[in-house]
Amino acid sequence: MAKDPVCNMNVDEKTAKHVSEINGNKVYLCSSGCKQQFEQNLSKYGY
Ligand SMILES: [Zn+2]
Questions:
Q1: Predicted pLDDT of residue 29
Q2: Ligand 1 centroid, distance to 13 Cα (angstroms)
Q3: Residue 37 backbone dihedrals phi, psi, to 5 degrees
Q4: Which residues make Cβ contacts (< 8 Å) with residue 44, sequence separation at least 6?
Q5: Ligand 1 centre from 33 Cα, in Å?
Q6: Which listed residue, 6, 14, 24, 31, has the most CB atoms within 10 A of its CB?
């Protein structure tokens, strides 16, 4: 299980539909809303 850094929900890497790749790191998000939130606030999440 990966963790959505935005809402701290567990995300299954195998079925995740919302994946963001930052500097070679795959970050799994639970929804398009969280993905957008993540990508617009990368520094907030340590990227
Ligand atoms: Zn989320």
A1: 98
A2: 13
A3: -60, -45
A4: none
A5: 7
A6: 6
Q: How far, in Å, is the centroid of ligand 1 from the Cα of 7?
A: 4
* Neighbour-count burial for 32-42, b at 16+ CB within 10 Å, e otherwise: eebbebbeeee
Distance 27 CA to ligand 1 centre (A): 11
Tell me how far the alpha carbon of residue 1 lies from the centroid of ligand 1, in angstroms: 13
What's the pLDDT score for residue 37? 98
Please give the Cα distance from 40 to 13 (Å, whole number): 22
Taking the model in full, what pTM does it have? 0.91
- Enumerate residue ranges in the chain where pLDDT < 70: none
Note the pLDDT of residue 21. 96
15: amino acid identity, one letter? T
